[in-house]
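seq:
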Amino acid sequence: MKKALVNLVNISKSFDGQLVLDDLNLYIRENEFLTLLGPSGCGKTTILRILGGFEKPDKGQVIFDGNDITFFPPNKRQLNTVFQKYALFTHMNVAENIAFGLKIKNKSKTYIQDKIRYALKLVNLDDFENRMPDSLSGGQQQRIAIARAIVNEPKLLLLDEPLGALDLKLRQDMQYELIRLKNELGITFLYVTHDQEEALTMSDTIVVMNQGYIQQIGTPERIYNEPENAFVADFIGDSNIIGATMLEDRLVEILGTQFACVDEGFGRNKPVDVVIRPEDVELVAPKDGAIGGQVTHLIFKGVHYEMAVMAEGFEWLVHSTRMWEVGSQVGIRVDPYDIQIMNKPESEDEEAVGVNE
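struct:
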């Protein structure tokens, strides 16, 4: 187990009387790619700004590499930040942009030149030293912003929605570049995004947030396959979320029909929520399904068909490589391992608090 590089301890923060973070605790391990994922206003950027020194918490501590840096200014922290709006100096060429932080630290000319060449090679922009920022594409500008950050050899790189301004193809290319850089440099990455695909593609660990609270922490696979509440299930990919009754261990009643499942420990006859991913819903002939229904919508998505099936008063979302025409009568079958059981929140407050209560 790698040691924690960052510990955020009991962090709270308000803006104009509005509580944004409430007694939050989070640690980040060395050489980890950790992503804060959530909708706008959930508190993820506030965490990044507190860690970067751009905001002070109302209470709590920021522990970095064993030291309390809660009230250190940004330039006294062993970290760098890459923003969505690249923040390149337009009157400086690429080399001057990259060298800016090193010159402030009074590094030698030879050292700076070596670092510029090294950083440009890392971001695959050799021979771009003399180019001006306004002559570069969005993806190239973002690479220069990253190069400027990594030449300072930070222990932690903070990335605040850095790919948000790029088109889809460039975003995908840069995702692979960031993974490669993290592996080559051994730097810890803290990445902030509301884009689920980015989080699932790049992260070692995802922290799902809502309304200032941590909802779930886990690997991309665990977050996707085993969401701990309805918010996570709904926010990460598409889901069928259905109110159900846990009859007993490994047996749940969904829309009046009993389904075998693998979950235990929920009690008997307990109201629960069930999550079933669209790709885990199998459409079969009506006589072969546990529940019968009718296909009401059909869209071709390239790699699969997306269908809506009305069954027992619920509209099921289905992803399948097999097409069923609109109007087709179908049966629905779900493997026990693909039925995820969750406790129902008893109030809106409990729903917001999630696992960080």
